[in-house]
Amino acid sequence: MVPSTSVGRGARNERTPADAVPERLLGPDAVASAFEAHVHAEDVVRVRKILAYSIAGWVSSAALDFITVYMLGQGRLSVPLGIRAVAALAFLAVLLRLHVEPAPRPPLFRALNLLVLVGTCASLALIAVEQGTIATVYTHGVSVTLVAYGLAFQEPWRRGIWLAGLPVATFFAILLGAALFSPRIHADLATTASLGAFLQNTIMIAMTGVFVVTGGHVVHQMRRQAFSQRGLGRYELRERIARGGMGEIWRAHHAGLDREVAVKIVRPDRASQPGASARFTREVRALVELKHPCTVRILDHGVTNDGLRYFAMELLEGETIDARLSGEQKLEPRRAAEIARDVARALDEAHLRGIIHRDVTPKNLFLVKLATGEEIVKVLDFGIAKDRGDAEASTLTAHGQIIGTPTYMAPEQARGTEVDARTDVYALGAVLFRMLCGRPPFEKGSQAETLQAHVWDAPPKPSWIADVPPELETIVLRCLRKAPAERFATAGALADALEAFLRAPLAARPAAREPDAPIDAAQQTLDAPLSRP
Ligand SMILES: Nc1ncnc2c1ncn2[C@@H]1O[C@H](COP(=O)(O)OP(=O)(O)O)[C@@H](O)[C@H]1O
Ligand SMILES: [Mg+2]
Count of alpha carbons within 13 Å of 201, Cβ hemisphere only? Predict the structure, then answer.
């Protein structure tokens, strides 16, 4: 039911009251999406089996009808058999639907289950009406239905009351309502012995219902707790950091290493696409090979038995460039150039291994403050979870969603034609533009207009918008050329150009330095520890 690996006992025992764990560690949203998906997947499989057995039981309990008609002399046989047959056909239809992929989503699934439960109890009541008594053996059928419900579902009590209560209410509504039309039922209600038996049966059903609903609730809580403690593989999820289009990022704890990591979980609905699993594994394996210090370090990856794919990476402390630039904020040109150079080097390594990032944006670049006070950039989100199925180069997913971020998207990616390393060069150029100018090269009202601008419009010169050194401006504009061939051929070449710019001011521009001399000098000192060999 759950993956074989789990959180170590030691870690579990350190915690205080067991039932406080899910909320405290995971927060209200915590288990929600992942747990609901997990429970739903299990429920569908279980209900398929239980419903198949229930239909067999429903058909074979026609024996009751024969006994009631031939031995007790109550009613006609054709009516109960007819009701039974119609109900059985409906249940079979539900069973077939449960076996059709994709499995029904939770709302439809609940409606189908309710249909079966209510249908069973309504049929039982109609048969009892035909037999003309409220003190009927068919009342036990309601209890049996509740037991079947209890086996099939473990719902929180609020939902359980409805799922179990509605069928029971239907049974009594039909039986008592029939008193208005059927003289026999009316007379039976006035008979003390029948009324007594009826009340006894009612109490028994109520008790069964209470046990089934509360028991289901308790089991639900236990499953939820087990799920949250189990976490994902060796990781215990602690707090959700972000939720994006493709998945969720969690702060998680590895009990064995006693280390905090970030875990990215691919959203269950994305994960179910055909071939997604193999693709995911292939891509994570490639990323694990990336060694550049400015690429986020991938530590581990896995798939749970219920099909949630995840991978663990180093947990970063800091903020994204997007957060740093919030509003119209700019970065000092040298700092922007350093960041872009480091990102370009990280991308270059990925490109050499055949990995194109495809989504270089300020949200996917993370500024990490080290204990020494220096700050380094880390490239995140190497398109692992992105739908790259058949439409390898397509901009749109099957659902018409854009892959990548229009604001930073190269013309060839916007068009949906082939992408390569120079596509990332373009996007990085657009990010550098934003870091220098406080706004991206194209700001349009809609995504479609932005994409068109990338394809057709010349970008504004950064120096029109902000104080950008001409050498740096040349680099930015070269990245933003429409034709890939006119850009830097590789991210490495871009990094070299930025490096040359960063080295230049000291030697080549003594005149320009005059007014800025103290700042420049201070900057150089500040910068010194930042540049890596
Ligand atoms: N290793 C990490 N450590 C800390 N925060 C992270 C880490 N990875 C991602 N994040 C945060 O989660 C956000 C989304 O992550 P990302 O990998 O870009 O997912 P998505 O596919 O949803 O865009 C990032 O912008 C960042 O704020
Ligand atoms: Mg992202």
Answer: 22
